[in-house]
Structure formats: C-alpha cells, structure tokens
Amino acid sequence: MDKPFRRRDLLGIRGLTAAEIKGILDTAESFLEINTREIKKVPTLRGKTVVNLFFENSTRTRTSFELAAKRLSADAVNISVSSSSLAKGETLVDTALNLDAMQPDCIVVRHGSAGVPHQLAKVSQAAVINAGDGANEHPTQALLDAMTIREHKKKIKGLEVAIVGDILHSRVARSNIHLLTKLGAKVKVAGPGTLVPKDFVHLIDAAEIDHGSKAEGQRPLAVCEHVEDAIRGADVVMILRIQRERQDSAYFPTLREYAIHYGLTNERLDLAKKDAIVLHPGPMNRGIEIASEVADSSRSLILDQVKYGVTVRMAVLYLATGGGVTNS
Amino acid sequence: MTETRMKFIISNGHLIDPAAPENTGMDVLIEDGRVSAWLKQGEPAPEGCEVFDASGLLVAPGFIDLHVHLREPGQEHKETIASGCAAAVAGGWTSVCPMPNTNPVNDNAAITRYMIEQAERAGLANVFPIGAITKSSDGSELAEMGEMKAAGAVAVSDDGRPVPNAGIMRRAMQYAKDFDLPVVDHCEDKSLSSGGVMHEGKISLLLGLKGMPALSEEIDVVRDIILAKETGAHIHIAHVSTKGAIEAVRRAKNEGINVTCEVTPHHFTLTDRAVEGYDTNTKMAPPLRSEDHLEAVIEGIKDGTIDAIATDHAPHHHDEKALEFDRAPFGITGLETGIGLAFTELVHKGVIGLERLVEMCSANPAKIFSLGGRGTLAPGSIADVTIIDPQKEWTFNALDSRSKSRNTPFDGWKFTGRAVATIVAGEFVFNDLGKAANS
Fold first, then answer.
1. Is residue A14 part of a domain?
2. Are strands A160-164 and A186-190 parallel, antiparallel or unpaired?
3. Beta-carbon separation of A92 and B207 below 8 A
4. Burial of B99 (0-12, 13-18, 19+ CB in 10 A)
C-alpha cells in the first residue's frame, strides 16, 4: 500500500493531499472497533517503540498518544521537558540525536516553538509526528476533528465550518483550515480584529494549493468581520481556546468583554443551521469562549472529539511505523 | 598570504573608476602603497616593475563594506577581527566597518583604538569602526563621539538596538553633526516588531511564526528623515528592506535631505519563502521580506535610491543557531558571498552594469563614511584594489569559509563572478591567481 505521508513523518496537514487525509481517516475508522472491545489491545505494533517528547504540558494529547500506542502494543515512553533545549544548555539537534540513538521507531513531539518537528525530522531516523508546534500546526487535532465531523455529518465536502477565536496563535485553526479546505469544506474564521489578521484569507493561497476559481464567495476560506457572520448558516462551529496566559499581551481588554462579544452562546449558535454541531479542542474555559449551556448541550461533540482522538492517533502511529492504508 | 611588491602594474584589465570620467584602456601603476599613475595599455612597463596581468578581469577601487560584525572584543568564539578580515579579503572587500555591538560595546575611544590595532596586527583588510550613539547602546546617554572619531571611528550607530527615543535621537544627530559623523540607523520600532522572528505576512501566518511588520522599519525611517531634515545631520539608513522605507528615502533625497542607505545581498536575493523549513540561517533582522518588497529593493538599486551594498556580516556559532527558530539569534554571514550574489543577482541579470556595481561597493561607501583617498584609483589615491573575474563560476562551501562561523543560507549556492585578488595599500592580501602575477 502507498505510504500515506512523505518520509512517514506527519509534520502538518499542509503537506498532505486530500487522498492522504482520507487514507488516514479511513484507517482510523477501521481501528474504531478496537476501542469498544473488552480487551482493547491488538498486537499490530508489537516491538515498536514510540517516544512522546513533550516540551509543553498537555495531559490530554499526551495521554491520547500513549493510549493509542499501548492499544497497538507498542512500547511508549513519555518524556516531559518543562524547559527549552536552550535552558538546558543542550541544542535542539543534540536532544534529537540523543533520543534517536536509542532507536525509537517514532518520536511524537510537542513544542512551544513552530517548526521544531521539522527541525527534528531533518536529523532523526525515527518517524516524527507533530503533536503541536507553537502556532504552526496540530495535525492530529485536525484529523480527529475531521473524523468527528465525518461520523456525524457523513461527509465533509460542501459543509460550512465556522472557526471562532484566537486564529492568529492557533495551530488548531491552521491545521483545520488546511484539512477542511482540502476536503472541500468552506471555512469562515472570526474573532477579535487583533487576533484575526485579514491576511489570513491568503493562508491557503500562500500554501500554493490550486483551488480553481477564486471569485469572491467562491473562496474556500473567508475572514469575517463579525462572529455572527461566521456562525450564520454554519454546519459546524469550532470554538478555539482562549489562552489566558496570553492576556498580558493585551490582544483584548478583559475576559469578561471577550465572553460578551465573541463567546459562543445559545443565541449566537441559533444563527447556525438547526443541526449544527459544536467542536472545541479543549480544555474549555467555560463561560469565556463557550457558554456552559452550549458546552453541555447535545450539539456539543467535545467528548466525541476526545474519543476519536485515540483512534486517529492509533492510525497515525500505525501508518508512521510502516503500516499501509486500510480502506473501510 | 601577504605579498609585498614595492612597484607593480596591473595591466590589460577592465579598469572601472566611477570618480574618473574616462578610464577604459588604462593600466594602473602602484608604488609604495599608492596609485602613482595610469598608463595607456600597450605602453611598455616602467623599468624594474612587476606586471600583474588582469586580462578579462575587472579592476576596481577596493570594495568597502559599511556594515559588518567582527565580534571582537567579547565574542571571539563567533569571529575575531583577524578571522573576519580574512573572510573580507577572500570575498574581495578591502575595508570593513564593524558595528559597535561588541562586549563591551564600542562606546569609547579605547575600544575603537583596540579594534584598529587588532586589524593592524592581522594586516589584512582596513577596519573602520563605527562607534555607539549612546553609552552601552542602551539608548539613554550620548557616547563620546568626538573622542571615538579622534581614535578612528567613521560613523555612529546603535545598530541592533536602535535608539527608541526620538528626543535622544534628535540630540544624537545634532551632536554627531558637530563632528561630521554620519548617524547610521538600523530602523526598527521594536514596539511593533518585538517577539517577531520573520517578516509579517502570508508566510509568517502560514508558518505560525510571529511576524515583524514592514511598518516597524518604515516608521523609524520616516522619523529619522524628519530628524535629519531638522538637524541637517547625515542619516545613513542601514540595510533597507521594505517598499515604504525605500519610497521614504527616495522622497527625502528629492527634497535634498542628507540621507543615504545601503542594502544587503540577501535582501536583493531571497524572500520570506526561504524561511519555510525553519532553517535558522534564514533568520535575520531586518527579516527576509516578501516578493513585493524585494521588487522595490531591486527598483531602488536600479534608480540609485539605494547608495551602497553592505553585507551585514553577522557571524554566530553553530551551537547558537542550532536552536528552535524563535530562539535562535538573528543574523547570517555575508563577507564571502556578497560579491558572488551581486554579480549573479544584479550584474548578470541585467539589473545594473559594472560601473554602478563599483559605485555601490566602493565609490559610494567611501563617500558616505568620508574615507578620503579610497573608493577611487585616481593617481595619488591609496592602492586598495579589488580584482574580480566576472565570469568565474564557483560554488560556495560554508565549511571552507575563512570566517569562524558558518551561519549562511547560501551554502552550496553556485555563483558567477568572484574576487580573484584583493590588494590593500599596495599589498596582495588575497591572491587567487597565484602564478598569474608574474614579471
């Protein structure tokens, strides 16, 4: 079977074709059943070693990758590095070479700086999986979001997806924009002007993807001036987490004002299609970017996202360490 | 290796001296470190005179790099004055002007003198230090510009730590004018660019890296021009990189304001697309800009708005660059690739002719920093000569660099055109022709 990603690294969604993305999602679907068994373990990756190298704290993503590895019988090692390589006096390249010398099959890396997985991949023999790098990409999050949408809407092509919040600093937004537009959805982004640069509309042009007609209204990506414009008529509303720690940079005055003007309330959600679903990459700031009544409603699929996260990561680890695409 | 020739002639070359209206078909006679005469080609060489055959080669007044970092004193693991000068002469530069961001900062005459003495010890390129504008370059109190000038400084700048306070910058210009010192500014309003690591635009959004907007450079350029107009001081804008900055300089020149500017080879060659892949050797300040800015740079080179080519040679040790993109230091080396880039990207692509190239690399820099007796090969001038083979094809291998550092995005690049001999005060400080120089 075809290798689903170049060099078996998964550095971002941007470098993948629609067929490759579908290949990963199909493979994930075939793994879905394993996670419902009483004994949730198959021998597929027995003897393979997966290193989870996390330079940023993340309970959810790290646990998800760890469970994914273990359910496929791989040996998973977690390394949490609270500080950067610089602070340790070791260069990033040294860190990579030292880990690589232990001959893992796969290094899953999360880092606060954009591009670190790309830098590791240049020197590492192991397959490198990007588990989130700075504001660049978070490919497995976009894949699990896509899987959630596909399971509920039975398709992605032709859907309208609103992404609301801190677009500028969001790796989740970037990966989702690439993925959803590649699969034929229309994406509308909105949020405070300080966090939603107008130039964002060129994101996918800059990635040099041929989308055919670029007439206004035909563009697969739109930047909306108001949150309401993005949500109106949407099939999917994706809410981004507000990074409280970024508050000192003063991109908006107060969390209170953010909640009032940009938060997803039932009133705002009513602008979307009747059967619209709500996604959030977590962890949620209840009452800020998302009202509790929305988060807890049946339209919110936040726990499904977490569930599919394990499945998608099983597929990614399987493909990265040598497996072929499974068509369901 | 330094070879001394008391008296020799450079014959059959293509002499270009922008200071002289008519200079084709001339041989250059050099005696005791100075140009003594021009002789018509074909005339017999004077008695006892060694002949350097420069057939097919460009013979130009020594190239002067207005903007380098030699890291000494303080950061000798990156570069020393000796290693930086070795890189300079191998790249065809006879003179270099080091910025004051050494450790300690070159904000006093003792350090200025030390830098010049180290250069004399190395005996390669001329070193004309640039002193700090403010003490420790911290932007608050003026440094002793008069004393530094007396010690040999040719300009003042706080380079990478541009003076943020317009009131202090105004005073700096008023004061520098008393000593006829040009004020060199790395224009960057850090309130707009702080935390940024590349040009702000589509590519920074795509890569998830924090941007440094073009307007951060432009606001400072406009501020400086207004201050130069009011004070009458000479402001020299370092490494212009944006459309708006170049337009502002063009307007100011038309108004007769005393402003000059330089451009780096990387800014007329690369765009922010080069940052894809997160190679930290594409990180510098000002950052590689987008295509429209590069077009404006080329236009500014063509129409004369941009006066000079300067490399902004900024060596950093490999360990410092082998970091996360947003943590790695700004800067790349440039002394050994500058002329290759200028020929390959400008001359051979028809952007400018040889005359204008020599103007930008020698005649204009000498004027901008008032380096008397340089930037020309007129009889009586100092015998600093750059001899270039414009057609020589070569590949730059960073591992062969004379610099102590290897931080370049041009490793493995193929160029057409390079310096084949560099003469400083009548001495061959770099000679790649070897046996071609015969009697």
1. yes
2. parallel
3. no
4. buried
Cβ(B196)–Cβ(B168) under 8 Å? no
Say whether both A114 and A200 belong to one domain.
no
Q: Which of B200, B205, B275, B281 has the highest number of chain A CBs within 10 A, making it the mutation to test binding with A?
A: B205
B312 is catalytic: yes
Does A124 share its domain with A218? no
| One domain for residues A88 and A230 | no
Strands A106-111 and A127-133 turn out to be parallel
Q: pLDDT tens digits for B148-162?
A: 999 999 999 999 999
Closest-CA residue in chain A for B329? A86
Predicted confidence at residue A246, as pLDDT, reads: 63
CA distance A114 to chain B (A): 6
Task: For B276-323, write each residue's pLDDT tens digit.
Answer: 999 999 999 999 999 999 999 999 999 999 999 999 999 999 989 999
B256-293 CB burial, b ≥16 within 10 A, e <16: ebbbbbbbbbbbbbbbbbbbbebbbbbbbbbbbbbeeb
What interface predicted TM-score (ipTM) does this complex get?
A: 0.90
For testing the chain A interface, which of B191, B316, B325 should be mutated: the one with the most A CBs within 10 Å?
B325
Residues A291 and A148 in one domain: yes
Range of the domain at A41: 6-136+306-320
Residue B438 pLDDT exceeds 50: no
Place of tokens 């997806």: A161
Q: Which amino acid is at A3?
A: K
CA distance B320 to chain A (A): 8
CATH annotation of B62-368? 3.20.20.140
Identify residue B165 by its one-letter amino acid code: N
Q: What is the CATH number of domain B3-59+383-438?
A: 2.30.40.10
Do A311 and A294 belong to one domain? no
Instruction: Determine the pLDDT at residue A210.
Output: 47
Q: Which pLDDT value is given to residue B437?
A: 44
And the tokens for A289?
């970017």
Q: Which residues of B394-409 are buried (b: 16+ CB within 10 A; e: fewer)?
A: eebebeebbbbbbbbb
Q: Is A20 on the interface with B (CB under 8 A)?
A: no
pLDDT at residue B105 is higher than 50: yes
The CATH number covering residue A121 comes to 3.40.50.1370
Assess if residue A36 is contained within a domain: yes
A325 domain-assigned = no
Report yes or no on A1 lying in a domain.
no
Please tell me the least confidently modeled range out of A244-253, B99-108, B382-391: A244-253
